Structures are given as C-alpha cells and as structure tokens.
Known about the structure:
The complex is a heterodimer of chains A (89) and B (314).
Chain A: H1 3-17, E1 23-26, E2 29-32, E3 35-39, E4 49-53, E5 56-60, H2 63-73, E6 85-86
Antiparallel strand pairs in A: 1-2, 2-3, 3-4, 4-5
Chain B: E1 2-9, H1 15-24, E2 31-36, H2 44-47, E3 55-58, H3 63-66, H4 70-83, E4 92-96, H5 103-112, H6 114-119, E5 120-130, H7 134-140, H8 142-149, E6 153-157, H9 164-174, E7 180-183, H10 190-193, E8 209-210, E9 213-220, H11 226-240, E10 244-253, E11 256-266, E12 269-270, E13 274-275, E14 286-293, H12 299-312
Parallel strand pairs in B: 1-4, 1-5, 2-3, 2-4, 5-6, 6-7
Antiparallel strand pairs in B: 8-9, 9-14, 10-11, 10-14, 11-12, 11-13
Amino acid sequence: MTPPELRDLLSDALALWEVPGRVGVDGGGVVLAGLRVAAASKDELPIRWWIERAGHRRPCTSVSGLLRGVRNAVGAGEGEARRLRVAGA
Amino acid sequence: MIPVSVVTGFLGAGKTTLLRRVLADPAWADSAVIVNEFGEVAIDHELLAASEEVLVNVSTGCLCCLVRTDLGTTLMELRRKRAAGEVPAYRRVLVETSGLADPAPILHALMTEAPVAETHRLLSVVTLVDAVLGPAVLGRHPEARRQVMLADRVLVTKPDLGDAAAAEAAVRRLQPGLPVRAAERGAVEPGWLFAPGEPVVPTDAEARHSEGVGSIVIEREAPVAALALTLWMQALAEHAGAKLLRLKGLVALAEEPARPMVVHAVQHLVHPPEWLAEWPGDERRTRIVLIGQGIPRHFPARLLAAIEAEVATA
Lengths: 89, 314
C-alpha cells in the first residue's frame, strides 16, 4: 500500500469510526491525530506497519491489525465486539 | 431444512392481502404462516384463509423486540407438531412481521438461534411498499427504510391508487438494482416473490447514496483469494458493526473460479457459503453489494484492495 493509498484508507476509517480529523502523507507514511503510521521495511517482516506516538512504537503485522491499532490509538473504541459469525454454527 | 420467507412492509402496505392471495394458490397452500401483529387485538390472522392448524399468531408485541423468544419457540413448536402429525405437513414457513418491525433481529434469530438455525433456512425477505403512502413513509420512518434495505425483493402495492413509479424510485434510492414489481391486491407470482435472494448489482451510480444509507458495490475482475475475502468480511464486521446492514454477492474465488460462491450476511452474521453450479449470464467477476448506513463509499473497496495485496505477498 502506498502512502496515498494508506491515507485514503485511514481517512475512510476515521469517518467510519466518526472520529474527526485529517490524514496526511508524511514521507513513507501518514500522520493523523497525533500518530504517525509508517510502513516497515522488508527486512522487518512479518511486521508490516509501525504505529508511532510520543516515543512509543507499536508493530502491526496486517491491515486488520493496523486498523485495530489505529482505532484504539485515536480513542474510537475496540470495534464491534461481535466478530463475524457463521449462521447456524 | 424448512425454508422460511419473511414478509415485511410498513403498516397498511398490504401484507395480509398478499398472503391471502398466496395461500389461495394451491401450489402455496401448504405453507405455515406466522403472523405478528402489533397491538392487543389481533385481526390480521382472522383475515387469512390458511388452515387454522398452521396459522400462528404472535400478538404480544412487535416481533422484532420479542424475536429471541417468540419466533424461535413458535417455529420449533410448529415443527414438533408437524413431526407428530398434529398439523399438516407444511413445506415452508411465511413470517408476516408487524408493520413496525425492524427485520434485522428477525433475520438474526433465524440465522443464529441454535435449534432454529439448525432446522430452518432463511430463504428470502420480501418487502411491500405501497404506492400511495410508501415514498412518504420511507422518508419518515427508519423502520420502513430498513425493511427495504434488507429486502431481496420489493412488491409495490396499490399501484392503481397511487404513483407506483414514485414508490419504485424511492425504493431504488435505498437499494438500486433490487428486483421490484408492482401488483394490485397481491396479484404476483409467488414463485417470483419468494425465490431465494440473489445478489443484484445496482447500475445507477447516482442513486447509491442518500441520507447516509444505501448500497455500495464491490466489483473485481480478478478472482479473490478465500483468505482475503474472509479477512475483509471480518474487518468489515469489526469496524462497520451495526452500520453494515447486509452484504450479498457472487464471488469468483481464486481457489475455484469456475463457479460462483454466494456470500450473504446480515450485519456480522454470515450464511454458510453456497455455490452455484455455474455463473449466471456472461459476467464471471466478483460482485458484492453492501447495504449500510454511514459507511464511507470507498472504504470497503480500499480495505479489500489492501488486504488482497497483503495476502498476495504473504
């Protein structure tokens, strides 16, 4: 995901979570709400993203993990507690 | 599995009239009907001409509020009586909701309550919108909009008394591409009305969004990896929550692209995937429709693209 693609995805996510704010491209990552999200280098795999805030760095290994981490960091809660469930299961 | 169809529509839309007509058809007379009336005095069930033994009235309140007890209990009791020969061997169940019912809890109950979901299968949701008051009702009442957004088919009733085209347009603003027919006094083929719900891809891009509700279409030329699809649906359920009302579509899975997989979910509840024997028509690409409220238009597609790229490099 390129930084502009990441910006667009996280901008949509903020709107979905009803969190006001803007997302901007910043070098190899994006900045939003006091956070910086940066792509990890290839030799850091399986880490794909870093969420950075005031001296703290949180690794994320997936897009799902990234969204969850950003959501928590911006104070939008932990998402829908009821996870995907197969009917009748 | 006993197929169950839900007939919904706002107060006075003509649900009972429709069911009377359906039950008068010999091919559909072997239907059990569960009627939910909102109010202390139940009338609708008296108007239905179905066999008394397979007509159940639930008039203790709005079914969507009581559904976790009443509907499940009623369905299972009916099934027990059928097995015991106490009621005719009905072949399907038609649930008439009250006009004020939000269909989502009803669908949840059908899909999740353990004994019900193991013995019954939600076949379709039919919503009635009347041509006289329908457009105004859809504008004023969120329950009416949810009835349309969760529908597989819409029947515009009373076209002889009102503006059927306006009613259809109001429906399409909420769910573009939805199969819609107009009929006087329920004069429509039950086979069309209660056919299994199939995903429909809207074609009117301008109508996809209104008042924060509407449908979002995901189309993919290349087959989608099963893992990517699963992660995407999981992330949608997690982050859209109750804003995601329904998801339905045909998917070309990378693991088996020759035949389409049918995906169907109500909020975070997913039907077990089904497979069609072959692709309907010439188009063999993934088409998924999301019905939701307040979901940014591009979020689902951007999320899927990001997850697909991630899965491809895993």
